[in-house]
Design goal:
Ribosomal Protein S5, domain 2, six-stranded mixed beta sheet, 32% helix, 9 helices, alpha+beta, Pdz3 Domain, 18 strands
Length: 349
Amino acid sequence: MSRRAATLTAASVLVLVLALIGSVMPVPYVALMPGPTSNTLGTNDKGQPLIRIDGRTTYPDEGHLNFTTVTYRGGPGGRIDLLTALRGWLAKDTAIVPEETIFPDDESQKQIDEENTRQMQDSQQSAEAAALHELGISVSTRVVIEGIQKGRPADGVLKPGDEITALDGAKVTSVSQVTGTMAKRKIGDTVTLTYNRAGKEGKAALKTVADPEGKRAVVGVVLGDQYKFPFKIDISIGDIGGPSAGLMFSLAIYDKLTPGPLTQGKFFAGTGTITPEGEVGPIGGIQQKMIAARKAGATVFLTPKDNCADALSARPDGLRLVRADTLHGAVQAINAITSGKGSVPACTK
């Protein structure tokens, strides 16, 4: 065998060996890819309305207001191999990111799943509140215990789901009221929490202790604002987590509660978190979400302003990017597009 042939043979064997190693060598990275996209004006995978409103007049809608998602491969329980990671780095629709950005070292898979579920639930409530706020429909709030810190005074006395109705005899309807009052209490003071549990009122006198930094008086409860709506709104999307569908939920609710179809039959998609006041916030995976939207047929993509720079650098052909700062602004932008009148805020770097 000639020296050249021997060299080619050795090189081929080396490449084969490296390929075999790469196909089985797990790496601590996660591949992010375009996920499912669903029309908030349509039905879920069970054929039921994705958003249903009872107790209030609703109006026919048409077109699309699609929320978008990101799916992933990899993670501590099933890492991708080196070759998959390399292919992902070369693919336009895939992002390869360090494992710890998706799966923090200090959280279990169960904790991550629970947090994603909680974020989705909070997002739905915020979307409902934002839509009603935009429509001028009043919404009241209540303070609910979301968690109890072990070893703290509230442990074994209060429970998640208890509604806090008063603090030291003063009525409270928001978390900010509770935290404002607690900020005036000293470590070692006794506070009395009035609560409602399954329709029954109770009172708990708890001696405050220091927070981990030793600066504030606490009793060991994690509180959250919950909204009391004047009618029923159900959002049924199945096993999808995270907060990024908030904007599209709120637009769909607004559409159903106002005469005439908001989209006029056009295909809009988008993403963004939402506050109860209607402020739109940034999200992750904007490139993958745009690709999913365009493949589904969207021609306009509502984009949080803080995601605009990344979106512009990866915008699929045929997809118009519209900057969404608030729910009110998004509604105005859609009206301007469908009517052909008025200015439309565009994404800029």
